[in-house]
Amino acid sequence: MKTRARIIGTGSYVPEKILTNADLEKFVDTSDEWIRTRTGICQRHIAAEDEQTSDLASKAAQAALDMAGVTAEEIDLLIVGTITGDCPWPATACLVQEKIGAKNAWAYDISAACSGFVYSLDAATRQIEAGAIQKALVIGAEILTRFIDWTDRNTCVLFGDAAGAVVLEAQETESGVLSTHLHSDGSYYELLYQPGFGSVHPPSEEGLKNRVPYLSMQGNEVFKVAVRSLYNVAVECLEANNMSVADLDLFIPHQANIRILDAAAKRLGLSEEQTYINVERLGNTSAATIPVALDEANRAGRIKEGDLLMFDAFGGGFTWGAALVRW
Ligand SMILES: CC(C)(COP(=O)(O)OP(=O)(O)OC[C@H]1O[C@@H](n2cnc3c(N)ncnc32)[C@H](O)[C@@H]1OP(=O)(O)O)[C@@H](O)C(=O)NCCC(=O)NCCS
Question: Do 19 and 116 lie in a common domain?
Fold first, then answer.
């Protein structure tokens, strides 16, 4: 029997404040009808002014620890997938460590945009399979609404804030994370990125005027590559495990746009029952979409022991990746 990373707890946190499409119509040149038909999004949650990404992440983490019956002191490794950390450095994972009391863990962030959770799950799984650690906390957490340009209707209608987490434990088992498949292609980086403030555009009044610290995206270019990549890596993941779409009990894709999800699900031949979608209620919360959806499905009783799950993500970089999990 192989040592595998088993998911023994899930948790999520979604800020209280809701911004509906009708609210957006009041200050953006858009319409509920356009947003619904082009993205499937009806509302998004917005973090409160006194909430930081480490707060959202800590609440999701504590919920996952409580479900797993594990204390923060038992955690050996803590990884946060995020592109909207509390500050450029140190890692938001270190702030989460402090806030939940995971004093025996080492902690770091992974920046892989919307693929951040799948990349982080891979990193922790490999530490467990190598026998380096027993328990890990893997979190996807974002406050993207503080980095979008509310005057840019092409982007501001798409994103929301949230955090999701899983507790992983080393077990001798046929269940757990069966495989992970990660890819990236930097030639596309300018199609979906935040130009500043970094070493290319260090903090400056000029930069602020030129909107560099805000998310920039070529929407329909991203759309095409996203559908193709989500499909390709899902097929790669199934083939690597001699599995087919029919074997999947639940497909949990990155929640970016209902048309992207429908196109990928249709190409894969997935049924509605097999596919988990919550983009209409939360919008695109980047690295948080998959762990939040997983926690919702888990707490709703949609996942039972032995079920086969796939996580499938695509995001800025471009990065993309999939993971196959036996529950
Ligand atoms: C952003 C996205 C919803 C735009 O939908 P689209 O069908 O590609 O629309 P286009 O960008 O071609 O714009 C079509 C028209 O709608 C307009 N438009 C754009 N945003 C609008 C808005 N919020 N409200 C009303 N009209 C809008 C455009 O100005 C354009 O008008 P024009 O035809 O007069 O030039 C879609 O491209 C998308 O979802 N891309 C992927 C985004 C994503 O989620 N990325 C994250 C990583 S996966």
Answer: yes
The answer to whether the CB of 222 is under 6 A from ligand 1 is: yes
SS3 176: strand
Residues 94 and 51 in one domain: yes
- The alpha carbon of 69 and the centre of ligand 1 are apart by a number of angstroms equal to 44
Co-location of 317 and 194 in the same domain = yes
Tell which of 129, 149, 174 closes a domain.
Answer: 174
81 and 191 fall within a common domain: no
The token pair that represents 135 in the structure block:
């328990």
Half-sphere exposure of 96 (CA within 13 A, CB side): 36
User: Pick the catalytic residue: 114, 156, 181, 257?
Assistant: 114
257 lines ligand 1 (CB under 6 A): yes
Query: Mean pLDDT across the stretch 85-111?
Result: 98
Cβ count within 10 A of residue 325: 26
What torsion, rounded to 10 degrees, do the Cα atoms 53, 55, 58, 60 define? -80
CA pair distance 194, 202, nearest whole angstrom: 12
Please tell me which residue in 45, 237, 254, 257 is annotated as part of the active site.
254
Nearest ligand 1 atom, CA 256: 44
Length, in residues, of the chain: 327
pLDDT, the chain, mean: 97
Model confidence pLDDT, tens digit, residues 167-191: 999 999 999 999 999 999 999 999 9
What average pLDDT does this structure show over 309-326? 98
Q: How many CB atoms lie within 10 A of CB 266?
A: 11
Query: What is the per-residue burial (b if ≥16 Cβ within 10 Å, else e) of 37-66?
Result: ebbbbbbbbbbeeebbbbbbbbbbbbbbbe
